Amino acid sequence: MDEKKAVGKKPDKSKLKSKAAKKPDLSAQRKNPQGDVIFALDIGTRTVVGVLAKKTAQGCKILDMETVVHEKRSMADGQIEDIKAVSADIKKVKRELEARSRLQLRDVCVAAAGRALRTMRAAWEYKLPENKLITAEALKATELDAVRRTCESFSKKNDTTTFYCVGHNVISLSLDGFKVNKPEGHRGEKLVTEIIAAFLPAYVVESLCAAIHGANLEVANITLEPIAAMNAVVPQELRLINIALCDIGAGTSDVAVSRDGSVVAYGMATTAGDEITETIMKELLVDFETAEMLKTSDDKEVSFKDILLRENKISRDRIDEITAPAARDLARVIAEEIIAANSVPPQAIFLVGGGSKLKNLAPLVAEELKVDPTRVITGRRELLRGIIAPDEIQLNAEHSTPLGIAVSAGEGVSYDFTTITVNGRKLHTLDTNRLTVFELLGFAKIKPEDMLAGSGKPLSFTLSGEKVTLRGEHPKPSEITVNGEPASMNTVVTKGDVVVIAPAENGADATAHLSDYFDLETIRAFTVILFGNKQRAGKYILINGREVTADRRIWEGDDISVVQSETISELLSTLGIGEKVLLNGEPPAPEDMLKSGDIITYEKPISETAESTAVPIPVTVPPVSENAKSAEEPVREEPVGPMITVNGIETEFPARDDGKPPIFLDVAAAFSDDPTELLAHAETITVNGKIARLDEEIRNGDVIIIE
User: Angle, to 10 degrees, between the axis of helix 361-369 and the axis of helix 316-342?
Assistant: First the structure.
């Protein structure tokens, strides 16, 4: 029964029940593998066009085609803005093509565009095997190697941004200094391959790949949009002629130029069909969809509603009048891009893409280029060379890119954008069958020098008169694994590989602390009164002549010594005093231990003018005066510093000369030549368990921690 006639008829419940009881026909739902069917996808600024095709001896045979218009402006100037929305549109195209073809589509061929296109032209020389014929395989290998080397050269000049090569053409081949079109079968010593390669920023290509992956598809190969259009409109046999092709889409106008048998230049401008649409929007106060309808309508008069909800009618002539200035600007931009790529006006100009259908665009371009208007032609079905398609599939100027993608996939050197996971990040790299781990470093943001490391810096210092040198730790070498197996920089990687690259790490610098060489619990320093002056006594450490009573890091060049003056005999020996003395008024035994505040005087009074042989060492208190005071002379009452505990060690801290209490900064300065550096590297800085202030006064009994 005809479906239209069945509308509104009540369903037979008994039939529905019987149908529900039947098992589903799984064979009818089963899809066939994609096989050798080419799935080409043109993701444009306004539409997504999918094409199913097969390569045949007669040309590229088109099997089916589906077009979906973006529901919102999810792309701008040929670049994807909303990945999720574009993925949804790709799914629609895929679903329709799968339903009609009964194929399970998995691999897709695409073309890239974008406002940041760059190109590089380079020639590379190859030494050929002696007395051997040049084979097709050898030519392909040199071409791919030329692409790889051009990519490397381009990356060195653009190291601040990662770019992908999205297409190339061989400009010329020279054998032993002479240009040849087909070196295959010849012999020679030297082959020079000159190519032009096109590059787009990684984010442009990766967003394209992300949208495709979001539709459960894999990128089989990729090319550049003007290359694709060129392959559909200007086949190899026409490239001896100087031809410029401009593919005018909604967001970009892409230019490719042929000459002397090759494609020699590419260009891209961000002025295209959308500028015409936006002109209509502003002039007639309509939304984008309405403006697009008015632009493409062939009716002599068109009805529309503006944003003020007013009903309007406008003639085709009036629309053309409104768009004329924008059309003139577009023609000027196209002409400028062609001249930039070709230097002079070409012999012929092909305008393709949906934007080429703009009225009077071809004569305007001819006028801007100052060429015969008959030399500029707008694309139509007859221009699509090498394309075989049934009559029911409508092919127009806007289909040159999707059809060209299919043609590109079926012939020449394809660009397999291999997906490789590096350090957890998926990378899409150009597979030239020679991709190594080394070549992945740039994509992984790892510099080659990061794969090498050295030992840590040594540390040299003097300890009790002996030179000590500590070596830095050995470096940690770089580690590379491919699919969990150890690998090297030269390991070749293939599609789907999981690569983990751990950069090398420099060895730690040699470090040492006083606690590595001394039992700091035995360090005890205090002040005694020697012949009327303060003198440090006990057991303490000197670093570069300054007293240190707490643990401290040892730095390069430090001179470290220990002063042992805990007993009366040790103190006198250290200071070189030979006279007999009294300790607190009593004759001491040599082994008598000293304590803070002890008073040491001469056993026999001496003249005030007599010179003493005692010359105490200057530590953290003033040295003993050369004129020793008489034992009978009363000792000057000088302020005694507070007893404090620093990092677990009790010590008497010297009083300030001005009589004021010492502050925390004074304590830090006593423990380091550079208190600022000491405090900057300390994790804990407290006084009595609270965070210390630099100007905080230090009192008797304070507990200080600097670690």
Answer: 40
**9 confidence band (pLDDT: 50, 70, 90):** very low
Residue 383's CB is within 10 A of a number of other CB atoms, namely 19
Q: Is 594 exposed, middle or buried (0-12, 13-18, 19+ CB in 10 A)?
A: buried
In the Cβ-directed half-sphere of 308, how many Cα atoms lie within 13 Å?
Answer: 5
DSSP string, 532-582: TEEEEEEEEEEETTEEE-S--B--TT-EEEEEEE-BHHHHHHHHT--S-EE
> CA-CA distance, 96 to 290, in Å (whole number)?
26
Side chain identity at residue 480, one-letter code: I
Q: Hey, what are 350's tokens?
A: 């092909």
Q: Would you mind telling me the total number of residues written for the chain in this entry?
A: 707
- The one-character DSSP state at 434 is -
Query: In Å, how far from its chain's centre is CA 705?
Result: 44
Please provide the average confidence, as pLDDT, over all residues in the chain. 81
| 8 A C-beta contact, residue 111 and residue 401 | yes
pLDDT at 434 (0 to 100): 56
303 by DSSP, 3-state: which? strand
- Average pLDDT on 346-373 reads 91
CA distance 228 to 399: 11
Q: Tell me, what DSSP letter sits at residue 394?
A: -
Query: What is the rounded CA–CA span in Å between residue 165 and residue 197?
Result: 7
The whole-number pLDDT of residue 4 equals 38
Place of tokens 């590419």: 266
- The whole-angstrom separation of Cα 494 and Cα 507 is 33
Read off the DSSP letter of residue 452.
-
Distances 607 to 578, 610, 632 between C-alpha atoms, Å: 17, 5, 11
CA–CA distance, 318 with 315 (Å, rounded to integer): 5
Task: Quote the pLDDT of residue 339.
Answer: 92
Kindly give the pairing relationship between strand 376-378 and strand 348-352.
Answer: parallel
Ordered DSSP codes for 321-358? HHHHHHHHHHHHHHHHHHHHHHSS--SEEEEESGGGGS
- pLDDT tens per residue across span 163-198: 777 777 788 889 888 888 788 888 888 999 988 888
Q: SS3 breakdown of the chain: % helix, strand, coil, rounded to 5?
A: 30, 30, 40
How many other C-beta atoms lie within 10 A of the C-beta of residue 284?
18
639/314 Cα distance (integer angstroms): 104
Q: Write the CB contacts of 13 (distance below 8 Å, at least 6 apart in sequence).
A: none
In one letter, which amino acid is 612? S
Q: How many CB atoms lie within 10 A of CB 161?
A: 12
**pLDDT per residue over 476-533, tens digit each?**
888 999 999 998 877 888 777 899 988 888 888 999 999 899 888 888 888 899 998 8
How many angstroms separate the first and last alpha carbons of the chain? 91
Burial class (CB in 10 A: 0-12, 13-18, 19+), 626: exposed
- pLDDT category, 336, cuts 50, 70, 90? very high
Indicate the pLDDT class of residue 77, thresholds 50, 70 and 90.
low
Query: H or E stretch including 295?
Result: helix 288-296
Please, which residues bridge with residue 38 across strands? 53
DSSP 95-157: HHHHHHHTEE--EEEEEE--TT-EEEEEEEEEEPPTT-PPPHHHHHHHHHHHHHHHHHHHHHH
**What is the model's pLDDT at position 413?**
46
